[in-house]
Amino acid sequence: xxxxxxFCQIANGEKxxxxxxxxxxxVVFKDIHPAAPVHLLIVPKRHIRSINDLTESDRPILxxxxxxxxxxxxxxxxxxxxxxxxxxxxxGGGQVIFHLHLHLIGGWQK
Length: 110
Ligand SMILES: [Zn+2]
What we know:
The protein is α+β, with helices and mostly antiparallel strands and 110 residues long. The protein has helices spanning 6-11, 59-75; strands at residues 19-22, 26-30, 38-44, 83-86, 102-106. A hairpin with a 3-residue loop joins strand 1 (19-22) and strand 2. The N and C termini lie far apart (41 Å). Zinc ion binds at residues 2, 5, 7-8, 47, 99.
């Protein structure tokens, strides 16, 4: 838990946010600046700054992020129409919040 980290605050329930899914490892909520009709963030509860800061012990977290993203896409009705999963890494890669998160976007008109 990083005191001034927005995503740590959300994961700890310190910042009122509509949580769409939660388990022991992660939380899922909507991006406040959606880039698509559906834009969810899948966020590990543990504070990991970026992909660059992952350690061996984080492997299960990464696996969980992907599996939950897949499930959330299904729940949002995107499994058939398709969607994108991506991670921005550091400023040059477009990362704005320095707490690792996986983007799920989709829901465009066909
Ligand atoms: Zn954090």
